Each structure stands twice: as structure tokens, then as C-alpha cells.
């Protein structure tokens, strides 16, 4: 992560992810997704930013349907790819140069988009590269049938 970039804390399924705030293209309200065809409506909510929308579990698995309990869709840009994930909250952080801690060996997986963690107030947030997250979402390992 670029230390001068500024960060956003996104939270879903009790997981806190720290991402480069400049990777966020837009933030959309999920209130319009409370009934009906969730996948179709999720794409319609993101006007002008047509992209895939995913709900992720705390283990970064792709859920089998959009989690309409989430409050927002965060649209992210990873290189040339734009995609959305459903989240409970988004917070812009004032920290510019967080102290990153290496993951314990038992948590370090080469294919994981999470490479470090940081303490944000009383919470632990996992540092996540948006490009690596996009690759992970599209990998076969993340495509299990997770219920939301």
C-alpha cells in the first residue's frame, strides 16, 4: 500500500479491511435492494459504473447471493477492473503512515489479498490490496457456496 495515499476502513461480516481510499470509485446506498432480484438490482444501483457486485464473508469467500443486510456497495477500481462489494460501513481514516504488522505464520497464505494488519483505535484491521482482492474474488478457491 502506498503510505501517502490515505486509507479507508471498510467493514462487512465482522471483518475490518484497510484499503487505499483512492481505490474507491463510489459509495452506493443499499436501501433500494431490500426485495426482488438482488443481483440485478445491485448492478442497477451503480449507475454509470456497470460492474459486478459481490458480497464477501469474513473469510473473503464469495457469498452465493447479495447480502441485502449490508448498508452500502463500495465500487472499487483495481487497474482496469471495476467491481463492487457490499459492506456494513465505510470510514475515511486520517492516518497517513500506519504501522503495519506482519501476519502470524499460521495466517499467511500466499494467495490471500491480506498481507498485514494494523490497529485502528480498538480494532484490528487487515490491510488489503484491491487488485489482489479482485484476483481473489475471481479465483476458484473463493467461489464456494457461502450462505449470507
Mean pLDDT: 81
Strand content: 35-45%
N-to-C order of helices and strands: EEEHEEEEEEEH
Count of separate DSSP helical elements: 2
Task: Name the descriptors.
148 residues, mainly beta, six-stranded mixed β-sheet, four-stranded mixed β-sheet, 2 helices, globular
List the helices and strands and how they pair.
Elements: E1 7-12, E2 15-20, E3 24-29, H1 38-45, E4 52-54, E5 72-78, E6 81-87, E7 89-93, E8 101-102, E9 114-120, E10 123-128, H2 130-137
Parallel strand pairs: 2-10, 4-6
Antiparallel strand pairs: 1-2, 1-7, 3-5, 5-6, 8-9, 9-10
Would you mind describing this structure in some detail?
By secondary structure, the chain is mainly beta. 11% of the residues lie in helices and 37% in strands. The chain is built from two helices and ten strands. It has helices at residues 38-45, 130-137, and strands at residues 7-12, 15-20, 24-29, 52-54, 72-78, 81-87, 89-93, 101-102, 114-120, 123-128. The strands form two sheets. A six-stranded mixed β-sheet has the order 7-1-2-10-9-8. A four-stranded mixed β-sheet has the order 3-5-6-4. The protein is globular and about 35 Å long. The termini are far apart.
In short:
This protein has 148 residues and is mostly beta strands.
Amino acid at each position: 500500500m502506498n503510505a501517502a495515499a490515505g486509507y479507508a476502513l471498510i467493514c462487512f461480516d465482522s471483518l475490518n479491511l484497510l484499503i487505499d481510499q483512492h481505490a474507491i470509485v463510489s459509495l452506493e446506498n443499499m436501501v433500494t435492494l431490500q426485495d426482488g432480484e438482488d443481483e440485478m438490482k445491485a448492478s442497477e444501483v451503480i449507475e454509470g459504473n456497470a460492474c459486478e457486485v459481490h458480497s464477501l464473508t469474513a473469510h473473503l469467500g464469495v457469498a452465493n447471493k447479495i447480502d441485502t443486510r449490508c448498508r452500502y456497495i463500495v465500487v472499487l477500481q483495481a487497474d482496469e477492473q471495476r467491481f463492487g462489494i457490499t459492506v456494513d460501513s465505510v470510514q475515511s481514516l486520517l492516518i497517513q503512515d500506519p504501522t503495519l504488522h506482519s501476519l502470524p505464520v499460521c495466517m499467511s497464505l500466499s494467495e490471500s489479498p491480506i498481507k498485514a494488519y494494523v490497529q485502528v483505535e480498538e480494532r484490528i484491521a487487515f490491510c488489503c490490496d484491491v487488485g489482489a482482492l479482485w484476483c481473489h474474488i475471481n479465483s476458484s478457491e473463493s467461489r464456494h457456496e457461502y450462505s449470507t
